[in-house]
Amino acid sequence: MFTGIVQCIATVRSARLQRGLMELSLEVPLEISDSRLGDSFCIQGACLTAVDLGPYTLGVEVSRETLERTTLGTFAPGRPVNLERALRLADLLGGHLVTGHVDGVGKVQEVRRDQENVAFRIQADAATSRYLVEKGSICVDGVSLTLGACRKDAFWVHLIPYTLAGSTLRFLKPGERVNLEADIIGKYVEKLLAGRLPEQAGPGGLSAGLLEKHGFTRGSRG
User: Fold this and answer.
1) Quick check: is 192 in a domain?
2) 154 within domain boundaries
3) Percent over 90 (pLDDT), the chain
4) Of 12, 21, 130, 201, which sees the most CB atoms within 10 A?
5) C-beta atoms surrounding 170 within 10 Å
6) 75 and 115 co-located in one domain
7) What is the C-alpha to C-alpha distance for residues 154 and 28, in angstroms, rounded to an integer?
8) How many domains does the chain have?
9) pLDDT at 215 exceeding the cut of 80
10) Domain region containing 23
């Protein structure tokens, strides 16, 4: 589990396809000698397992499933990537609960700059955008962000200089692809509601009539 608060920007040293896996070696400007093999790291929004460790180096293996569902398959030596170590129970939760399990790949449609304010409009597929709500949370390339306006196929995020300076988001341009993870709470709520009320919910989901029927509202009757 992670928070979406990037701890450093690592650099890809090598990326090789071996035995159907991608072997990534990273140079990490963060002392990680207290980490162990098998520990989890969030790299550009994807949770990966450490298979090789040095004081300032990290090796991970990326499965075919992860390569197909993320942008990691495009990584090449020299690429900067956001990195976060796994959350400890005593740590501050400065962002939101992030699993590192990417829901989909979005595309930057527009970048707006107004003095120190920078906003991104990012396209998202239906499987991801269904969980997005204005002022909710989204993880973009491993960075926890607050959602602005949301549409069926796109959303806005607004970044401050500190977030841009401390992550790879400052390099984004229109047309670039990003890893997206929606807030996990919405996914569980949807699953629980579907399990409890499958016959009533149907394709239309919740309605005023359904809520009234189960005692959540009084409706318009006196």
Assistant:
1) no
2) yes
3) 77
4) 12
5) 14
6) no
7) 33
8) 2
9) no
10) 8-85
